Structures are given as structure tokens and as C-alpha cells.
Amino acid sequence: MAPHSAPHHPRRRGEPATNSEPSTNSGPTINSGPMSSSGPTAVRQPQPESRYPVPVGPRRSASRASPRREHARARRAYGQNLLADPRAARLLADIAVADPRLTVLEVGAGRGRLTTELLHRCRRVIAYEIDPDLATALPAHPRLTVRTGDFLAAKPPAATFTVAGNIPYGLTSSVITWCLESPALRRATLLTQWEYARKRTGDYGRWSRLTVLTWPEFTWTLAARVPATAFRPVPRVDGGVLVLDRREVPLVAPEHMPGYRRLVERGFTGVGGSLFATLSRDHGRQRTYAAFRACRLAEDLPVGEVWPEQWLTLFRLLSR
To answer: Which stretches does the entry tag as region Disordered (predicted)?
Structure first.
């Protein structure tokens, strides 16, 4: 797999004087050559030795629908583009399973391409698939539990778990909200639209409100790019592997998180025309000016160009 090189972003006015810039290198990219079982020679990867061998056995029941009909049904009813490239499935599983002891909840198992790779790497997989025909066609396995239904309606496990999946693009925000609101979630590895993944991880030099709000508790990482040709039907855009990791130690103490969220929510309202004007209304011009100087922020800097680390400093200085 060849490394993906994104254009270098020049230093911006609001950039902190640290080495903690978000990397514009999004990690590996799946080669978009012909999708044979082994892939092009230049990117051919050996099958990793399975931690947990998957026995070959009969499927739960044979689906009468042809692959073409399955693809069409998924596209129309559920907005899914099924993962077809085995290299992409292996990459996604490698990233998703950081701790093989943890149960993985798979969102939208489809035809089981990712499911099988996850079973090679972890002890237990709970696969959610809303299409009954696709769900019943998934392979029977003692460490696989298939649940036919809506993942978003599922109750999060009480024990520590992870989430992985090639999710329908139209449900990205809902799936991420489910993950962020699950107290026992350790990691979520989600195949989303490429542009969405870049936006959430600051890869454009701008930071979204959701990323800033959750930064004290989660890291957001753009791990890889997956070409549109890795899916069936082929979507119009590439996919991006977005990884959410819960921090072992939050950057803001739990009792102070409501105050931090209020500051961020207030700052993103745009009241007054700029972040400086918005915060000056609440904290006074002189105090806000001193906080901006400490963060090396220009008074007219757009709110989206304020880095998460700078938000943390603003909160610390303005909440005294």
C-alpha cells in the first residue's frame, strides 16, 4: 500500500507554536487497480496470520438474490455501498482491532467482507445488518453474533467495546453520535466519505464544532483513504477511514466539561462577527484580549481556524 501525500498547509495566524499540527498525511491509500483476489502485484500484501482462525463452514442460509440484485437493493433501501475490495477490508480490520480481547460491534456487515477479517483478529464480533437477506447469508461462526436490525437502535454494551464498519454515508453523523454517547466505547473505526473524514480531523486547517466539543475526551484521526472503486456499487466519492479513540485521561476534568462545552458552543454562534467579539461579550474585552495573546490568536481569526489545543487554553484562562 502506497502512502498518501496530501498538500502541505502553510502556517496560519491562529496556529499554536507547538509541534502538534494535525498531519496532512492520511496514512495508507488502497491502490485503485483491478480488484482481483490478490490485487495488483505492486501492492500485493500477504494474508496476515490469524490470531483467531475462522473455520470454513456453511453459511447460515443461501441467499437467493444475485450479487447484482443485492447491490441494487442495498443502494435503494439503505444507502449502502458494499465493500468489495479484500485489501480495503484487511486495512480497516487492522486499524479497528487495537486490542483483540475487546468485542467489536460491526455496523452494516453487508456480505461479510469486513466481518471475516475482524474474526481473524479479535475474540468476538457482533455484526448488525438491517437487510434480512444479507444478514442470513453471513457465515455461521461460534464467535460471531448476527443481529438483524438497526444498529442505531441498539443499546451500547456495559463492558468496554469497539465499533467498526463501512457505514452508509447518509447515516454517518448518527453513527458517530451513537459512538460518542456510549460510555464504554474504546475506539470507533468508520469508513466514511473522504471529505467528511478530512473535515472532522482538521485536515483542511479548519476544525469543526463537533471535533472541538469532544476533543478533551476523544482523538479524531484520518487513518487512510479508500478509493471509490473498492465499493459496489461504485460511489461518486472516495472513502476515508476515520478513527475515534477515547482518551485514557480526559484533557478536561469531568466536572469542568459542562463549562468547556458552553464556551465552545458560545464561540461557534458567531455573535458579534468573530470569536473575539463573542467571547468579549461574556468575559470582557481586556480579559479576552489577554487570553488571545497567550494563545497567539489574531482578533479577527475565524472560529474554525482555532485549534482544539487553543480552545483548551482559552477555557483555562477565561474560567479562572
So the answer is: 1-75
